[in-house]
Amino acid sequence: MLGFTAVCVVTGLPIALLVASVVVPQFGWRAMFVLGGVGALIVWYLRKSLPESPRWLEAVGRTAEAEALMQAIEKEAAQGRPLPAPAAATPVPVSPDLATLFTAPLLSRMIVGAVCLITINTLLYGFVTWLPVFFIKQGLSIATSFGYSLLMALGAPIGSAIGALTADRWGRKPTIIGASLISIILGAIYPMISDPLLLPATGFALTVPIYVLVALLFGIYIPELFPTEVRLRASGIVNTLGRGATIVTPFLVVMLFEARGVAGVMALMIGLLIVQIITVWALGIEPRHRSLEELKGEEAPSAVPQEAS
Predict the structure, then answer these.
(1) Tens digits of per-residue pLDDT, 97-106?
(2) Rounded distance, CA 216 to CA 194, Å?
(3) What tens digit of pLDDT does each residue of 231-252 get?
(4) Are residues 137 and 69 located together in one domain of the fold?
């Protein structure tokens, strides 16, 4: 479900490009920020009806609210039929100290999360969002640039859908590594193409595995790396590092593009993808078909003997 949520989110990319192809030539690029602001106001209103996590409410002692929320969930799930007997209750965990995120075994997961989010944010904000600029710098008109970018952006919902549909079938780690390898191959080919038909087609093919990674990393894998009591804190830290990388990305992209063209930009992306593959392969966990409690069990000193038995 989180993967399909990512599909809905990234569908905004081709829609935004389609709108921009009409709005920007008529009203300038600032009008696009006005539209984004309207969307932000809608989100601000809708978040009022967003329910809190009952696990979190119980963990901080707000048991009455947790109970009321659970009763509402049970009523919706039952649909008028009796529910099965509940499983044995487990102790409510106490939020550990911040320092535990930087000791084994959570440290390796923090490294995986940071590397993956730095890589995917750089791919998005160092390549995908710069495509119209690249095309214009290479001599295309604004209209043609938006047309090419729109065609390539159609790979975003397709790639995210592939990620959502295959994560449980193929596993998180194989899908992340496979999509990264395909991105490396197509990224190496892309700068060599100048044919007006092959260029957007190859760009479209490259966009698909990039957005497989978007669905897997943002929507599925990174939240699964951390137990409930530290998920928000740990995800916030690795997302800060990932978003922080986008501060320097524009400067790197401009410098590399002026020095080496698109090939220079793609060299940076390929390098990050290689680091991501090695990190996920060496340090990443595989959460497919495993419960939160089972993943948390790996943190105990006896986790290895338990897993072996």
Answers:
(1) 778 888 888 8
(2) 31
(3) 889 999 999 999 999 899 888 8
(4) no
